[in-house]
Design a protein that fits this description.
The protein has 424 residues and is of the alpha/beta class. It has 2 domains: 101 residues, Roll (Urease, subunit C, domain 1), CATH 2.30.40.10; 303 residues, Metal-dependent hydrolases (TIM Barrel), CATH 3.20.20.140. Helix content is 28%, strand content 21%. The strands form 4 sheets. Strands 1, 2, 3, 4, 5, 15, 16 and 17 form an 8-stranded mixed β-sheet that branches. The protein has a 4-stranded parallel β-sheet with strand order 9-12-13-14. Strand 2 and strand 3 form a beta hairpin. It starts with a strand and ends in a 5-residue tail after the last strand.
Length: 424
Amino acid sequence: MKLFIRAAKLIDRSSPFHNQVVDLNVVSGRIEQLGIALTPPANTPIFEAENLHISAGWHDLRAHFSDPGYEHKETIASGIKAAAAGGFTGVSLSPATLPVVDSKSLVEYIKNQSKGSAVSVYPMGTVSKNMEGKELAELHDMSSSGAIAFTDDKKSVQNPNLLKTALLYCKSFDGLVIQFPNQFDLSYKGMMHEGEESTHLGLKGIPALAEEIMVNRDIYLTDYTNGKLHFSTISTSGSVNLIKEAKKKNLQITADVCALNLLLDDTVLEEFDTRYKLLPPLRDNKHISALIEGLKNNTIDAICSDHLPEDIELKKREFEYAAFGSINLQTAFAVANTALKNQLELTDLIEKFTTNPRKILNLPEIAIQVGEVANLTLFNPTMEWSLEKNTVISKSKNSPLFGKKLIGKPLGIINKNQSTLPKE
């Protein structure tokens, strides 16, 4: 692959060219030239675009590709295309498939299915066998086969002794446990955020307490084991405060937030539109403000898509019986960028998609310099656009964003000697 990128503003704090407009020449998947006002080599395709920006490739900490078992919702191939369209060069995959990813053979299946793609796919394994929360899965075997972390996804690990054992066991190979904090007894049959809006609509709520009690419990377990824990898709002000205090004690705790929980609040449920039925639920503005403050002060380390494809049969039904979840790989950056305009500097926002997710997963840092492998995302942070059904890459169409104005658009990625940038 040969490609000359002209006049792109580089967003990379570690680079001497940070915030400068540069040219890059990529040859055979490596950065051969990097500088200001370079001359394009002969017979090399040139890519240029209005307000072009470039950064290290983005990494998503949680996405569902539904394969194996639910291929009618998404496949690894279609999920990879959606990720690339969203600017992601790396994705951590949920193990919530059928069967669940609780063995080395399933980890290897996902790695084999994604081999050769422009997006690096990192399978996550379950914490418990069959994701039942009873018995520890074969964590070491899965790690040896390439599992990047361990999570029981939205089922959460309810048994504190099981989570304690997992945290202790993972220390032997520097493994990471990822927890979606949700205490089932408190959130049972809840459909949206518990508050004024749920009372007004007559829907059973999911209290902030259901999340915060588990965050508090798991901080204690992390402290007790001296383990390493990541909280996925936190959504409440109390969680932010608890994690902030835990970090002051230098516990090995990190956290991310779903982009949709930054942009949308619970008032969008007025029309009982099931596309807004998410888990964690959309909260009120008090919680959203706390999440944004948590991003500003680095209590929250990263932003994820929480991409969860669902078929129309499970979403287009009575609100009580509709499935939770939304597709979001294609829109995650735009959603976060729209929500955080004038709240977070672009460099800080990009780090929530690049440097920080890779640190959490203990992946090598991406260096944008001559001689290094090109792992890059190109984007326009000010482009206005909207998602329409006919432009959705995912096999599923369960997005709450159709027709909404979004700011910031990925233009393409370069990774593994491949480019998804539009050709002249």
